[in-house]
Amino acid sequence: MPRSWPRKPDRKTDPEFRRAEDRMNFIVHVMVYLAINSPIWFTAMIQTTVERPWVKPFSLIWLGILGLHLLYITAIADYSEASNG
User: Fold this and answer.
1) Which DSSP letter does residue 78 get?
2) pLDDT tens digits, residue range 22-33?
């Protein structure tokens, strides 16, 4: 059964919904990272005759961006009622 929100969701006035939405957004970004990087690394490891020097920096930079995203949603983002615009 899908989750349902107990009230009408409103990003501007509901900090709990903002937090849940930001975390779901992060999860989607992690899934996209894994869905793209997994086949890249798989083919890089299988095809040893083709040189792919860009794979490691590509994955590490993207992982760093994901780390910054995680840092934002866990430590920087303000989900209090007073932060409403």
Assistant:
1) -
2) 999 999 999 999
| Contact assessment for residue 17 and residue 10, using Cβ atoms and an 8 Å cutoff | yes
List pLDDT tens digits, range 39-84: 999 999 998 888 889 999 999 999 999 999 999 999 998 888 755 5
- Tell me if 47 is assigned to some domain: yes
Give the number of domains in the chain: 1
Instruction: To the nearest 10°, report the CA torsion of 57, 63, 64, 70.
Output: 180
Residue 44 lies in a domain: yes
Instruction: Judge if pTM exceeds 0.85.
Output: no
Burial of 44 (0-12, 13-18, 19+ CB in 10 A): middle
Q: Which domain covers residue 62, as residue numbers?
A: 15-78
Task: Provide the token pair at 32.
Answer: 């996209």
